[in-house]
Amino acid sequence: MMERLKKVAVVILNWNGRKLLEEFLPSVYQFTTSEIADIIVVDNGSTDDSVSFLSQNYPNIQLLLFSENYGFAEGYNRAISQLDYEYVVLLNSDVEATPYWLEPLLSYCEEHPEVSACQPKLLSYRNKDYFEYAGASGGFIDRYGYTFCRGRIFDTVEKDSHQYDNITNIFWATGACLFIKRKDYLDVGGLDTHFFAHMEEIDLCWRIHLLGKNIVVVPQSIMYHLGGATLDVSNPKKTYLNFRNNLLMLYKNLPLRDGRFLLFIRRLLDTVAMIKFLLGGHWADVNAVWMAHRDYRRDKKKYKNQPSINLLKIFPEAHRNIVVDYFFKRKKYF
Length: 334
Hints:
Strand content: 15-25%
Largest sheet: 9 strands, mixed
Distance between the termini: 43 Å
Mean pLDDT: 94
Number of strands: 13
């Protein structure tokens, strides 16, 4: 186990990401206060010159080297299990930091022991006046498992006019910059490695809530996220993972009786989405949704011991039906 030197470990997972490290690491290195945090780059068996680049240009950054690519979830799980810090930050390699980004997150969690995890306000790296899709100013979920954010519902992304600058409880925090207590992360089993990518942080946050812990957004911390560095938004693989993982997340985290009905409705809605893809000529996405449902039926057998609590019945904002709100009532904003 790597010995704790500071209270926080800022953990960046890298796989053949020399270009991203060269562009984004300088701001993280400059604006991460060394008195409270260590920066640790976890290399997932890269075959480019990432490691030599880091060794030559950032000798003060710790390196944790894996011999193979374990992917996003298992890579972080292996790394965090080897670290001895009170808090860890799962930070994507395509995130630009701002001055004093870490202090508000740490201070809030220190002052509120009931809070297990938090996120900063996440803005777009390409268009810095707007929120970033994958987290914005805090994530929520509706009654049928559709995820949305303060600042982003479906494809509508709001301009940041400081309308969401208050600290508030949220259902899920973005995996692009997730500040979390290491013990709680390990107690719930870390990220689900079967998910591979997409929805894995939302699933993790759901399990954190089932522990009785809170998750918040602290918008006084600001980060800029490039996004799409792993899979482009139009990639059918992304469509597949989003649809499959959403169904699996609902199945594993809802009581069986409630889950059966909800998943029946959700799969009907997914069929509507597949028809929309079909009418638009997006054949690869049609196939991706079909395969997602096929593999969901197979993969759900992995999950047993569903909880007795239905968080969608008690969590604020989970009563909403954002499909109706967005497409029929034309409510495009949070």
